[in-house]
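SEVERITY: medium
COMPONENT: batch folding queue
REPORTER: lab tech (J.R.)

DESCRIPTION
The queue accepted two submissions in a row. Attaching both inputs and their returned structure tokens so the on-call engineer can compare them side by side.

ATTACHMENT 1
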Amino acid sequence: MATRMFEGKHHATLYQKYRFAPPDELKTLILDYLDKKKGPPHLLAVDLGCGTGQNTRLMAPLFKEMVGIDVSESQVEEARAVPGFPNITYRVGTAEKLPFPDGSVDVILAASAAHWFHTENFVKEAGRVLKPLGCLALMGFGKNMEYHYGNCEGRLTDIFNEFTDALLPYTSKQVAIADSALQEVLDAIPFPEKERVDNLPVTYKVPVQNAVGFFESFSMFQAYERADPTAARALLETTQRRYCPPAPCRCPLIALGTPLFKSLYTLPVKGFRTSLVYIEIHAV
């Protein structure tokens, strides 16, 4: 079954407030692939591990109906609180047991989520519900984020790397799978051809407070905070102070660059239901 890591209300609030939405370029990439392999109409998309709905909302305008599914009631509650998307329905559920008939879904999406699924069961269920020539799109952040502000860019990236190094003892197997660009998941997918698109570049300009909130949302930090709340809080506060020293580097706004998504496509053959996209986004 899916790993349950994001159940708490506070963690869901961090996701809604500080997690970055995928770039608009992602919509074009996936839509072009769907048009090429399946063609319109594009009726139903399902966003698995949807969290608080950043990717769900990005992709919703491309489809008649969008369904976001997450195992966490708190995450789904946050997603439902965002108005203005009448074609989105959110449900609590898992990626391994989907509430759709065979061959009924145009595209299955999973943004920074597939590493939490039970791979074998997820892949089997995706193959069941996807239409012939439908698409499976898996996305995730790259590891090599860079932080820039004035002449402080190398220093800011070093601070981030030191922060993540401190979390290594709390890094789960699932995060290691994500850091490998989902290689274990991709190897398990039986579709006949796969094409990877690396390093879709993205830059976000955010206040330091938002960058630190993003760090706090990491599953590794949450695990550290459960194990040693005092030490975890001290690490977070120290990191924020280091990003905003008195002089000479004041950092009210920093540019975060990350390899954001890698893309992988499988070309369907007769009798196969699915094509695959894996996209890794890199902020640069």
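ATTACHMENT 2
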Amino acid sequence: MLRRPAWQVFRQFVRHESDTVGSLVLERSMNRVQLLGRVGQDPIMRQVDGRNPVTIFSLATNEMWRTGDSDANQGGGDISQKTTWHRISVFRPGLRDVTYQYVKKGARIYVEGKIDYGEYTDKNNVRRQATTIIAALHRVLG
């Protein structure tokens, strides 16, 4: 499912020394996110101010754990769950169009991309912050 194991990617970035161009130091860094969850709404396509269109959808990921003092192998304790919602934006033209046409609410999907933080002004002229995942690839699993 993954293109390269994480340790190979990590090794590639650590192996190389920082490059110096004049007085500017170019360091390697990584901004990578991998999510596996269910689509919360059918994707929508937006185009703002004549810029390139973007397909947007929400993705739910779940975290589960046992509470209580009993041993996890014994099956005791209550099971708790937390759902986290992620905003996914797809800008790449081919991927954007496929996402809009074929990804549907409830589909189980794997998304790989980078995290992005931004600001926008809402219709009440209030500045708000937004976190989004910029998808580089995805796989619909079911």
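NOTES FROM REPORTER
The longest strand covers residues 54-67.
No errors were logged for either attachment.
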